[in-house]
From TrEMBL, chain A:
Cited Pfam families: LrgB
Species of origin: Thalassospira profundimaris
Record key words, sorted: Membrane, Transmembrane, Transmembrane helix
Keyword Transmembrane: yes
UniProt subcellular location: Membrane
Cellular component, GO annotation: membrane
Protein name: Membrane protein
Superkingdom, natural source: Bacteria
Membrane topology: Multi-pass membrane protein
Automatic annotation (TrEMBL), chain B:
Main location: membrane
Keyword Cell membrane on entry: yes
Organism annotation: Thalassospira profundimaris
Bilayer topology annotation: Multi-pass membrane protein
Cellular component GO terms held in the UniProt record: plasma membrane
One Pfam entry name: LrgA
Protein name: LrgA
Chain segments annotated as transmembrane: 25-42, 54-74, 86-105
Compartments where found: Cell membrane
Keywords from the named record: Cell membrane, Membrane, Transmembrane, Transmembrane helix
């Protein structure tokens, strides 16, 4: 085939949703394969690998993100139903939930305040602007909520979106190692911490390892969304009014 | 399978409607999670069809974050100023939060029943 034909073929294919969808699944499969090859080392996170591969492809082929998303949206859409489906593993933990509800609520509030306070403090002493601080504050909840909170307290929602994804990736890749160092073996506590600290990406990671961890991660992620939406604006006005 | 997916979508739809209607700070799917959970509490025993559908959706939960992740990473050069405080605070704060919360919860959660699997390290299927 001539190079000109190839270019035409690419132009044709790149307008089809099929391409974006296929790239997404192939890149994730490669990521998952590498993850298993590495003996399930959390640093070889399939999401991170897939994002890197796809971002590189888009960059090299100069494909705009919107064109890629035409295909990838079918995968993206399932995020909503999958979040709803978290109710099922959660229900399987009903006995623990009943016995430990006050502890769970306390743990979520603790994690939420800890995440916000530590981010703001560290960034403040490293000289971040007020706008950046406000964009960072809600980083440990799921993207749409975090962007809403950031807008409310004067941050830049687009910057917040970046912070949320980076937080999820850091938590999912390095969080398990930190918990191993401390010697924590309770899957419920480990999952819970992943949901509070690294939202959905942490929860997805927890599900890859252990179903109990995944259930607790989903629980703390959901509760943390509510806790953070309520506490961050309050904390912000208390600190910087 | 179809009925189970339909039920999940109905929960999400109601969640979205409630979220919009009362301009709640919580996104629709999270409210849908709550609705489905309440439904399971009422029903007591979840139908196998539903648990199978949910488990299938969640096995590759992490795949579903890829499209949004790509969108954000392609925007990353917008974070030109303040990149050091941003990166440092995100890494330190996230790991600190995870470590402290996991430690706290491992002390506070009541001892696991024998089958809760504190010692079980199973892979994803």
């Amino acid at each position: 085939m001539q190079p000109a034909d190839l270019t035409q073929l690419w132009v044709y294919l790149s307008t089809k949703p099929l391409t974006g969808l296929t790239i997404t699944l192939v890149a994730y499969s490669i990521g998952f394969w590498l993850y298993q090859k590495s003996n399930r080392n959390p640093v070889c996170n399939p999401v991170v690998i897939a994002i890197a591969i796809i971002a590189a492809i888009l960059h090299v082929t100069k494909t705009p993100y919107s064109v890629y998303f035409d295909g990838a949206q079918f995968v993206h859409f399932l995020l909503g139903p999958a979040t709803v489906a978290l109710a099922v593993p959660l229900f399987r933990q009903l006995e623990t939930l009943k016995r430990a509800l006050p502890v769970i609520i306390f743990g979520v509030l603790f994690g939420s305040l800890m995440a916000t306070a530590s981010t703001i403090t560290i960034a403040y002493f490293l000289g971040a602007s007020m706008e950046t601080l406000a964009s960072l504050a809600p980083k440990s909840v799921t993207t749409p909520v975090a962007m809403g909170i950031a807008r409310e307290i004067g941050g830049v929602p687009a910057l917040t979106a970046v912070c949320v994804i980076v937080t999820g990736i850091v938590g999912a890749t390095l969080g398990p190692a930190v918990m191993n160092i401390i010697g924590l073996t309770d899957w419920r506590a480990r999952g819970f911490a992943m949901g509070v600290g690294a939202h959905g990406i942490g929860t997805a990671r927890a599900f890859q390892v252990n179903h109990t961890a995944g259930a607790f991660s989903g629980l703390s992620m959901g509760l943390n969304t509510i806790a953070t939406a309520l506490t961050v604006p309050f904390l912000w006005h208390w600190l910087f009014r | 399978m179809i009925a189970a997916f339909a039920l999940i979508l109905v929960c999400q739809l109601f969640g979205e409607v409630l979220s919009e209607l009362f301009s709640l700070p919580v996104p629709g799917p999270v409210i849908g999670l709550g609705l489905l959970f309440i439904g399971l509490l009422v029903k007591r025993k979840p139908p196998k069809e539903l648990t199978d559908a949910a488990d299938n959706l969640l096995i590759h939960f992490s795949l579903l974050f890829v499209p949004a992740g790509v969108g954000v990473i392609t925007q990353i050069d917008r974070v030109k100023s303040d990149w050091l405080p941003i990166l440092a605070s995100l890494v330190i704060s996230t790991l600190l939060t995870i470590a402290a919360t996991a430690f706290l919860m491992s002390k506070l959660l009541p001892k696991a029943p024998a089958d809760a699997g504190s010692t079980r390290d199973e892979g994803a299927k």
